[in-house]
Write a structure and sequence with these properties.
The structure is a homodimer of 334-residue chains. Chain A has 334 residues and is α/β, with parallel strands linked by helices. In chain A, 45% of the residues lie in helices and 16% in strands. Chain A contains 13 helices and twelve strands. In chain A, helix 7 links the parallel strand 3 and strand 4. Chain A is elongated. Chain A binds a DNA duplex (30 and 30 nucleotides) through helix 2 and helix 4.
Chain lengths: 334, 334
DNA sequence: GGTTGGTCTGAAAGCGGTTTCTGGAGTTGT
DNA sequence: ACAACTCCAGAAACCGCTTTCAGACCAACC
């Protein structure tokens, strides 16, 4: 940014203005189109800009305009296959509105997470926050900062912060309905992170499931295929005729284990996933699952944040519906 | 950033200084520890900061210091499972050095890519660029801008820009050596994007392979499991006894197809991957492959960029070695 | 006791843009 | 021909912070 020894000197707006024989104000006006400028001067300015290779300094613009031209996204885990696709969509939406995207990862570390949000708030116009486990009070405190904030995959009742998420409850209800319809009466749920909202929403669906005759037992597991692999065997000790995975990875991990144990799927046991990561080409398995509209999720999230920045946004939480895909791993129980 | 109607007013350094009864300079000194300040004043400042909830404005700091405290990363495709892990490591390294990470995605769109790099250059202290296909001349032009730049997974001979990448050539040579040792004489390579450096490096290994008796035919394919699935059948028309995938996804896609076609692996045909995405729990398949140290790659990349920013960096391109993992999909040919 | 020297603080000058304000030139109308 | 506008360009203020610079204060020393 500044001129350092050995680096080509930075070109500033005043370099351009002297080269073009106009004032800095005029250069600014030409470049931003904020006011009419006589065409001969416009030409001179453009010429000088090209000649000198001038690029406006983003920090100075940010300071002067009172906007950074940047939005921040905080996710718990970049390596979770769920997020990259969402980020992709967010990035393209905000880019279309002329903003850049800053990404941070919290690793689910609560102390760090708080710092990161604060940090994002001081260098971004708005923040998209995905924090499945942050305590409600802390969330409320951050939201009260008066800084544009959108909650992602998390709905906090009573908080007026805009939020967007997937209807996990509805999705899991569909899965249960499907299994109940096939005749299942007992199922085991390989649970994700206990404290997470996403997991709680899924679990909430099991109450509804009881209404149509399906009893679901919750087993500790995790969110990875390895966790699914490790937890699968325990299901065999129960009377469950179906395994509901917290997500596709868990389900595929469980499938992997079941295959080793010689358990036929869906003959002996049905298995369902969640998320639809579309790994069938990889996994050689057409998993029955429900899909998250990840692309739309990211797009809508970006749009809500943008709208919040421009007009202000005041609407109910957005829930995107999930869609059931009945494929090869579910069937009527023996 | 600026005070907008309906938002709590922004607290600036001068608010703090008047509240604490000191000058702005003193506040700055206390907060940054850049000079000794009498302890009673230090206390007053901290108190006022806490009271008002002051957070320094990042743009103003950037402008005054001549540093943004931000680095930028440009990747071709966020959804590629390769990158998230790398980004994770980069993010954590630069964070440890007090910098934030900006992420952009080029979609391999050449025109866009150029703009994005320029954009990153005007708002980041340094840029980490992953662009497998950008023409050499354009790369040279960007590098000559005098802005700190590190090339990622791409080595351009004759360019003094620091770069870090994986020894794809060595990795593929190991694969070929392994197959040759098993007795294979003919193999088919399901090729990735033709114009990419990563693909070219792999192909380059096939010349070396000829030296130890393995002839590799290159077949157009792509980089996804779907592409692998689609391309697999064509191999059966050749006399190849092994399929080398451009990456693990391609290999797994091919495996999926071979299974459908009733071809035994590794009995009838050996299959090897590349990258080691560790999908075995998902894919129920222990793929013979070579692994990329993705975590180290990201970490080293971040460190090189950081070093470049602080001291300047002038060293040869870094090549990280790959490691061969012989697993269940390779065996001696019939 | 009057320099000298060393600390610590505040005033002020940037950093590189944007935007308001001001004034000169050119039009229009009477 | 002169007042009243309009239009456009430049000067200057400002965004919020860092850092230089100069001055105030106090201790030490000759």
């Amino acid at each position: 940014m500044q001129n350092r020894p050995g680096r080509p000197p930075r070109v500033t707006i005043s370099d351009v203005s002297t080269a073009a024989g106009v004032s800095a104000a005029t250069v600014s006006r030409v470049l931003n189109g904020t006011a009419r400028v006589e065409s001969s001067l416009v030409e001179k300015v453009h010429h000088a800009v090209r000649e000198l290779g001038y690029r406006p300094n983003a920090a100075a613009q940010g300071l002067a305009r009172g906007e950074w031209g940047t939005i921040g996204v905080l996710v718990p885990d970049l390596a979770n296959p769920y997020f990259p696709e969402v980020l992709k969509a967010v990035s393209s939406v905000v880019r279309a509105h002329g903003r850049r995207m800053m990404v941070m990862e919290s690793d689910e570390n609560p102390a760090l997470e708080h710092d990161l949000v604060e940090d994002l708030m001081r260098c971004c116009d708005g923040v998209l926050l995905c924090s499945p486990r942050m305590p409600r009070a802390e969330l409320a405190e951050l939201a009260s900062r008066g800084h544009p904030l959108v909650l992602f995959n998390r709905v906090v009742p009573g908080l007026s912060t805009p939020s967007i998420s997937v209807d996990f409850y509805g999705g899991m209800t569909q899965v249960c309905g499907h299994l109940a319809q096939l005749g299942h009466r007992q199922a085991a749920y390989l649970s994700g992170p206990a404290a997470s909202w996403a997991n709680a929403e899924r679990v909430r669906a099991f109450e509804a499931a009881r209404a149509f005759g399906l009893e679901v037992t919750v087993l500790e597991c995790g969110a990875t295929s390895q966790a699914g692999y490790d937890a699968a065997a325990a299901v065999l000790d129960t009377s469950a005729t179906a395994i509901l995975g917290y997500n596709d990875l868990v389900a595929l991990g469980a499938l992997s284990r079941l295959r080793e144990l010689g358990v036929a799927v869906p003959g002996d046991l049905s298995v369902t996933g969640f998320d639809d990561l579309s790994l069938e080409r990889v996994a050689h398995t057409n998993l029955t699952t429900v899909s998250v509209p990840r692309d739309e999720l990211g797009r809508r999230a970006g749009e809500i944040l943008e709208q919040l920045l421009v007009h202000g946004y005041d609407a109910d939480p957005v829930y995107l519906p999930m869609q059931l895909h009945v494929r090869d791993t579910s069937a009527a129980p023996r």
